[in-house]
Design goal:
Blueprint: E1 8-11, E2 17-18, E3 25-32, H1 38-49, E4 59-62, E5 65-71, H2 76-128
Antiparallel strand pairs: 1-3, 2-3, 3-5, 4-5
Helix pairs in contact: 1-2
């Protein structure tokens, strides 16, 4: 994924359609600035599920699109606010996860280097035993 933060850049009006199971519901596609990776997507789905107050609308993601299954009478501005908030919180959580992963890798690398140094010193000592 692009290292820039994901943002909502609009709604794909050409893909707004009636939901397949109920004519009172529509699929409302919000376009993202890029196609997020699986980790970002997973965080986003979790964040949407934990919105406060909880939304009772289903959400799924497809490529660079977040699709909300909305009621035809829903307040679209409220959906926009929720999605933008979810994307912002997802970016924050994703960034924290990337930082933590980077720190863990650096720590593991340092431990590996320290181990290699100790091993080299041990080999030197062992070599000198019969010299």
């Amino acid at each position: 994924m692009n290292t820039d933060k994901v943002s909502v850049i609009g709604i794909d009006e050409s893909k707004i359609k009636q939901h397949s199971t109920n004519p009172e519901y529509i699929e409302l596609p919000f376009i993202l600035s890029c196609t997020p990776d699986e980790t970002w997507t997973g965080i986003c789905v979790t964040m949407y599920g934990s919105t406060k107050p909880a939304t009772n609308r289903r959400m799924f993601m497809l490529d660079n699109t977040i699709i909300i299954v909305a009621h035809i009478d829903d307040d679209l501005k409220a959906h926009k606010r929720v999605i933008e908030d979810v994307v912002d919180r997802t970016n924050k959580k994703y960034s924290e996860l990337l930082q933590k992963t980077k720190e863990e890798r650096a720590r593991a690398q340092k431990e590996q280097e320290e181990h290699q140094t100790k091993l080299a010193k041990f080999k030197e000592k062992a070599k000198k035993l019969y010299q």
